[in-house]
Design a protein that fits this description.
One of its GO terms (molecular function) is ATP binding. Residues 1-188 form the Protein kinase domain. 27% of the residues lie in helices and 18% in strands. It has 188 residues and is of the alpha+beta class. The strands form four sheets. Strands 1-5-2 form a three-stranded antiparallel beta sheet, with helices on one face. A two-stranded antiparallel sheet has the order 3-4.
């Protein structure tokens, strides 16, 4: 029998964020803050964004515990394999553990009218949670059943929960979605 406090994840997506890709403001901290709000407002639970399972700061890779043996018996570390992009960084890498989304990314220009409505419903849910995504593009969307899921909140603006919705910013984000998802390829 599984206890409620135990988390079992059969598949998850580990979003690694190298420090050099984290200019001020701290994009990792911003994404954590966004997912906290998305959890509080049930946007994750309602399936519009992937569920976050946790976050990590990887430290101590010079510890012998992390060392493995490569073919030939030479010591190796995670920096030689799956964290090689972080090998030269001054700060330890950080990562979010997110729900795995099995379905493919949204394909443009093959977006259906139903998917189009789902995209705007997803953006509406974000705006209701007082989050402006600020990076609406096809690579951020996945189709899951009857919903369109959006990812990547490191550039988002998170407003106080009791603030008014900024209609100008909301309109601009919807305009950007329309351009990036439908018109950009046609005019480029």
């Amino acid at each position: 029998m599984q206890n409620d406090h135990n988390l079992r994840v059969s598949k998850a997506d580990l979003k690694k964020m190298p420090p050099r890709a984290v200019p001020l403001p701290d994009r990792f901290a911003n994404e954590l803050k966004a997912y906290n709000r998305l959890l509080q407002t049930n946007v994750c639970e309602n399936g519009f964004v992937p569920r976050p399972y946790g976050w990590f700061i990887f430290t101590g890779f010079d510890d012998p515990y992390w060392q493995t043996k490569q073919n030939g018996g030479l010591p190796a570390s995670p920096y030689d394999e799956w964290l090689k992009d972080f090998k030269e960084e001054m700060r330890s890498p950080r990562a979010l553990l997110l729900e795995w989304i099995e379905t493919p990314r949204l394909k443009t220009p093959k977006i259906t009218a139903d998917q189009f409505r789902c995209i705007f419903k997803t953006l509406e849910e974000l705006h209701r949670a007082r989050i402006m995504h600020r990076d609406v593009s096809p690579r951020q969307f996945f189709v899951r059943g009857s919903k369109v899921v959006i990812t990547d909140f490191d550039a988002a603006i998170i407003s106080p929960p009791d603030s008014d919705v900024d209609m100008v910013a909301t309109t601009m984000e919807v305009r950007d979605a329309l351009w990036n998802l439908f018109l950009k390829e046609e005019y480029m």
